[in-house]
């Protein structure tokens, strides 16, 4: 552990997300998220004016940006980068943002990323795949790859079934909403489809019709963590039905339970695989391709996580301690001209 970061106060954006809590090095303190109507966004620290006269309660030694800035224009992010007067660490979770649906929106997101990458003292990402793209497409010279830590350190015990599952939740914009996609999978393998009760009722009805007699459709209220982990642990494989994005905490949760994952061949989802056979890629939005990937996974059976998640936790936290120490050293040395 790097001793130089003990007693450092970090303004993490956000601070209380499960990922950002998991990566915290010992001895480092984190300012809490603001309470803005019951959630942390839009975070006030993304406003350039925040840095011109921030309240004493928000004094920190370092700022660590993760996500939540898609509501700011590229110009506003440029103003923010000029205003931040602390050492800055940036973790690039989303090169392609799953919440943005059009090419102009993604182009603006990429422009924001380039600005933040240029302003950061340290840039981290989760996979070698993402690091390569940041170097080639965003001009990032020095990237530290720190893998996604476990979501569940104590995986649920459940009776494994030779079934694949897909969790549609409330049908966010980056989730395939064409029932034919799921029907193609259900015609090839045993499939269990979960969808929130508050999802678009037209899609729920259409799914029910398409999957009748072919798959188990479970309409439910949102699961708490324990219930969700039990459902995932029962599955042999899980399908990520995404149309865009870069990395997935859901994939990591599945791997915590030894559940294998079918992922779209976009972003860096496949690059998160911890072991050969843990992940199979399919053509995005192609039900037949997804069916082939899921069939391979079910034939292979569960694949235990390769390595020690507990040891990985220590490595991840130490990597962040080192990144914080380097950022503070660079800032003191005037690298960013502050």
Largest beta-sheet characterization? 6 strands, parallel
Give the number of helices: 11
Radius of gyration: 21 Å
Would you identify the CATH architecture of the largest domain? 3-Layer(aba) Sandwich
* Topology order in helix (H) and strand (E) letters: EHEHEHEHEHEEHEHEHEHEEHH
Q: Main sheet: which strands, in order across?
A: 2-1-3-4-5-6
**In percent terms, what proportion of residues is strand?**
5-15%
Poorly predicted sequence stretches spanning 5 or more consecutive residues: none
Mean pLDDT: 94
Q: Count the strands?
A: 12
- What is the H level of CATH, i.e. the homologous superfamily of the largest domain? Glycogen Phosphorylase B
Describe the global form: globular
Distance from first to last alpha carbon: 28 Å
Helix content: 25-40%
Structurally, the number of domains stands at 2
The level 1 CATH classification of the largest domain is Alpha Beta
In the CATH hierarchy, the third-tier topology of the largest domain is known as Rossmann fold
- Alpha-beta content class: alpha/beta
Descriptive overview:
The structure is a single chain. This protein has helices spanning 18-22, 48-52, 74-83, 103-119, 128-138, 179-186, 201-211, 225-234, 249-256, 287-300, 309-332; strands at 9-13, 29-30, 62-65, 88-92, 122-125, 143-145, 164-167, 191-196, 216-220, 237-239, 260-264, 279-282. By secondary structure, it is of the alpha/beta class.
């Amino acid at each position: 552990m790097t001793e130089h970061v003990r007693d450092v106060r970090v303004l993490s954006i956000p601070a209380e997300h499960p990922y950002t809590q998991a990566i915290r090095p010992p001895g480092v303190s984190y300012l809490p998220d603001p309470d803005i109507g019951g959630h942390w966004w839009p975070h006030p620290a993304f406003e350039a004016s925040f840095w011109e006269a921030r309240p004493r309660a928000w004094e920190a030694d370092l700022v660590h940006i993760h996500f939540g800035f898609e509501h700011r224009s590229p110009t506003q992010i440029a103003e923010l980068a000029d205003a931040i007067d602390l050492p800055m660490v940036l973790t690039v979770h989303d090169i392609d943002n799953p919440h943005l649906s059009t090419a102009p929106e993604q182009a603006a997101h990429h422009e924001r990323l380039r600005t933040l990458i240029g302003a950061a003292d340290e840039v981290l990402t989760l996979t070698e795949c993402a690091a390569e793209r940041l170097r080639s497409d965003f001009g990032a010279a020095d990237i530290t790859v720190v893998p996604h830590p476990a979501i569940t350190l104590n995986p649920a015990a459940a009776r494994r079934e030779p079934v694949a599952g897909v969790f549609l939740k409330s049908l966010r914009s980056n989730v395939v909403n064409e029932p034919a996609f799921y029907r193609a999978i259900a015609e090839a393998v045993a499939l269990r489809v979960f969808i929130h009760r508050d999802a678009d009722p037209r899609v729920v009805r259409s799914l029910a019709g398409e999957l009748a007699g072919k798959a188990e459709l479970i309409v439910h209220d949102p699961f708490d963590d324990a219930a969700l982990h039990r459902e995932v642990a029962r599955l042999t494989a899980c399908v990520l039905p995404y149309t865009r994005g870069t990395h997935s905490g859901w994939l990591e949760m599945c791997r915590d339970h030894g559940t294998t994952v079918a992922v779209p061949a976009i972003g860096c989802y496949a690059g998160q695989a911890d072991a050969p056979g843990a992940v199979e890629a399919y053509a995005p939005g192609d039900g037949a391709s997804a069916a082939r990937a899921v069939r391979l996974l079910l034939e292979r059976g569960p694949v235990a996580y390769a390595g020690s998640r507990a040891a990985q936790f220590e490595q991840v936290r130490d990597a962040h301690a080192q990144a914080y120490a380097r950022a503070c050293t660079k800032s003191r040395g005037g690298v960013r001209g502050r």
